[in-house]
Amino acid sequence: MRPIGIDLFAGAGGLSLGFEQAGFDIAAAVEIDPVHCAVHKFNFPRTAIVPRSVEGLSGAAIVEAAGIGYRPVDCVFGGAPCQGFSLIGHRILDDPRNRLVREFVRLVAELGARTFVFENVKGLTVGRHRAFLDELVTEFSDAGYDVRIPWRVLNAGHFGTPQHRERLILLGARKGERLPDYPDPTTNIAGGRNRIDDLPDGPTCADALGDLPDAERFGVLVDCDAVKTSAFGEPSTYATALRCLTNDAWHSGYAREWNPAVLTSSARTKHTAISRRRFCGTKPGSVEPISRFFKLCATGVSNTLRAGTDGARGAFTSPRPIHYRYDRCITVREMARLHGFPDWFRFNATKWHGARQIGNAVPPPLGRAIAGSVIEALGIVPTRTSRAIALGDAALLSLDLSGAAAQFGVDAPPSRRDRKSGATKRKQIDIERERLSGQPAYA
Question: Buried (b) or exposed (e) across 340-359, using 16+ Cβ within 10 A?
């Protein structure tokens, strides 16, 4: 029987996928943003979605939603937002803005999880923020859990992902259980950045994107995000895995029923001629000086892909890099390739939502490596399954905030994108501003 995992702060499901590929069944995913819930439900149709905040949510309610009865929860994982830092002399965890971290600890204990994985930003490990981690370790200890010390920051580029992306990872286990070890790196970061001796080079941007047809070849992608095509090129070893062209590509996860002849998550972006000229003149591996967009290098790795802000804080999209071959920003699918998501994995059809879902996610190859160490500590041998499952209703991918909220029967969180002026009107204004100034507003 496969071990059970529960994803808190699940987003679109980067950690869910990594844990599934390592051999877990993801019994439940808790996520407050209904747009993310809809995408998670499409990609993981057998996982129970709990579309609400963790605040006030009981472990018993999660178990009931998951339908697992008295089966043990083998791992709880997720990345709780932590934003507040109190004045000297005050406990950082007592800051109200860090309440979600305490909720994570509480739910780990209430669920009686055998292990947990807590992920967050690298910045928590430096300066005064280290006091936060000390308090968090104590909080887990008081709840009956040991934490692997010293904690580590792991780089996705050292686990087969063509992206420089560092995340703090805390590994813990219920007292009396074996503590998981940190996984050993398997690759260097191609291009010489942040290298580890005696490891093979990892995949490059060209390995990730070279076989994908240029989205600008397809006029239909102006108004939608998918097109059927035979224009895929010869894939690299890395791309072959993400296209699931071999049985090993599914790892210990479930195969999905999907159509590999459809290029998805590839809605086009409009750029002015001025912007394109600047993109063309930017040296690969450097930053375009006006837009501050990073231009990918074919033989290197991507910079860290970021999410931007959510709707409550203005709905600003973090800049997507410039393609190394084409004078445009990369598509959501190209972001997904750089993040280690397979091609069957879909995102919201709106570029802003899709890019945010990727930027918020833990790259699945890194999640899979971490989950593999957890399974080893649990004494479980991963099993592969020949069972394929159908993906969810594609209509879930086109839901806006209000539509997704209605889908799950919850209130829509506040969003500036839904204000009276409307996102479309603002976009038209910003495109005109770009035309006049030569500085890109949307990418």
Answer: bbbbbbbbbbbbbbbbbbbb
The answer for residues whose C-beta is within 8 angstroms of residue 41's C-beta and 6 or more apart is: 47, 49, 392, 396
> Which residue in the list 75, 82, 297, 329 is annotated as catalytic?
82
Burial group, residue 432, by CB count within 10 angstroms (0-12, 13-18, 19+): exposed
> 10 Å Cβ neighbour count for 436?
10
Which alpha helices (DSSP H) does 122-228 contain, by range? 130-142, 205-209
**In Å, what is the CA distance from 205 to each residue of 166, 176, 291?**
18, 44, 21
H/E element holding 26? strand 25-30
Q: For residues 90 and 69, what is the distance between their CA atoms, to the nearest angstrom?
A: 41
Burial class (CB in 10 A: 0-12, 13-18, 19+), 299: middle
- β-strand pairing of 115-121 with 75-78: parallel
Q: List Cβ neighbours of 380 (8 Å cut-off, separation of 6 or more).
A: 3, 23, 74
Q: Is 329 assigned a catalytic role?
A: no
Return d(Cα 363, Cα 388) in angstroms, integer: 23
Round to whole Å and give the CA distance between 375 and 298: 35
Report the phi/psi class of residue 440: left, alpha or beta, with left for phi > 0 and alpha for psi in -120 to 50: beta
Q: Tens-of-pLDDT digits for all 443 residues of the chain?
A: 899 999 999 999 999 999 999 999 999 999 999 999 999 999 999 999 999 999 999 999 999 999 999 999 999 999 987 665 443 345 556 665 678 999 999 999 999 999 999 999 888 787 777 888 899 999 999 999 999 999 999 999 999 999 999 999 999 999 999 999 999 999 999 887 677 878 889 999 999 999 999 999 999 999 999 999 999 999 999 999 999 999 899 999 999 999 999 999 999 999 999 999 999 999 999 999 999 999 999 999 999 998 865 555 444 567 899 999 999 999 999 999 999 999 999 999 999 999 999 999 999 999 999 999 999 999 999 988 888 999 999 999 999 999 999 999 999 877 655 443 344 434 433 433 343 334 433 33
The SS3 of residue 421 is: coil
Q: Which residue, 385, 391, 358, is CA-closest to 22?
A: 385
C-alpha 423: how far from its chain's center?
A: 24
From CA 76, how far away is CA 43, in angstroms rounded?
19
Whole-angstrom Cα Rg for the chain: 21
At a CB cut-off of 8 Å and minimum separation 6, what does 408 contact?
34, 37, 38, 49, 51
